[in-house]
Amino acid sequence: MTAAPAAFDPSTATIVIVTYNRSHLLTGLLTSITAMDPKPGRIVIIDNASVDDTTDVVESFREDIGTEIVYRRLETNTGGSGGFSEGMRTAYDLGAEWIWMMDDDVEVLPDGLARMGFWTPRFKSIQGRRYDYDGSEFYWQYRIAERMGIPIPFAPSGFDTSGYKEMNSGCFEGMFIHRSVVKQIGLPDPRFFIYWDDQMYGWLASRRTTAVIVDEFALRRTREIKQWDMGIRHMNASSNAYRFYIMRNRAYIKNYYRVHGVYNPVLFGLGTAMTFGKELIRLVFVERTVRGTSNLFRGLKEGGRLGRDRSWQPMPPLEG
Question: Mean pLDDT of all residues in the chain?
Answer without folding.
Answer: 93
